[in-house]
Amino acid sequence: MKKVVDIQTKKQTINDLIKQMSIAGGFSAKHLATSVDIVEDMIKDKDCLKFLSFPACIIATGTRGVIRDCVKEKYFDVIITTCGTLDHDLARSFKNYYEGRFLMNDKELHRKNIHRLGNVLVPIKSYGIIIEKFMTKFLNRIYKEGKKELSTYEFCWELGKEINNKDSILYWAYKNKIPVVIPGITDGAVGYQLWQFYQDHDFKIDVLKDETLLSDLIWNAKKSGAVLIGGGISKHHTIWWNQFRNGLDYAVYLTTAVEWDGSLSGARPREAISWSKIKEKAKMVTVNGDATISFPLIISALKERLK
Hints:
- This protein is 48% helix and 17% strand.
- The protein has helices at residues 14-22, 28-44, 63-72, 83-92, 106-111, 128-144, 152-163, 169-176, 189-198, 207-220, 232-242, 269-274, 291-306, and strands at residues 48-53, 78-80, 98-99, 114-117, 120-123, 149-150, 180-181, 204-205, 223-229, 248-255, 278-288.
């Protein structure tokens, strides 16, 4: 048995604090510390194919910068996310979002043409308008270049190239040729613009080409690991493909959801074992809590270790 050691509130690095959490005994702090150890092992494992999945909502927050740095530093080999990630990354590359509060008068915000995403305010001029103008110009350009059928990861690279902003996740995905796969590509403003363009152009998104890429990567991987933020289609698509190699070797879940309603978002790694989506002997942990808190801490501590 290991004794519980008190955390010392002294001047220290984030990694020092995480190390203290690892011997503090409980509760979620212990899981957070364990997650850093697992992610470190995964990143250092040269035989491991590394996935990062997340929902779009966090890209409306400052956590976008943490994910951007992960892509810039090539910590992950594949990104699986939702169409809204493209929306927010594109929009914030040119316009600002603003701080708000969860308890605001939404009728008043509606009259002022301001969307509310949790406690983030998204003016219409910073979202729908900028996306429509950008996408119209962008799609016409690539169409004239003869690019009439693209997978979502190829489309994201083209989008990152066009954005050409170092604050952008998609820009660094393009620069580093890290695939960004969007299984639900039509579920967002960018996806809607694709559909609009398709109405009078012979332009298509080939989602099955994305699946071919994932198949090739999975079948050639000696090991695989993933950090999975939240749930939904991006989480499921990640663990779904990994069942074909008998499961992930490393798995870190960051979630606010409960498991007793049967939701995928709340499902724990032990449930994924029953589906062969995570291996029985995998290194795995669930960190309960808001990823806008946990993920920046994990990556900041990781960066200190990798130096």
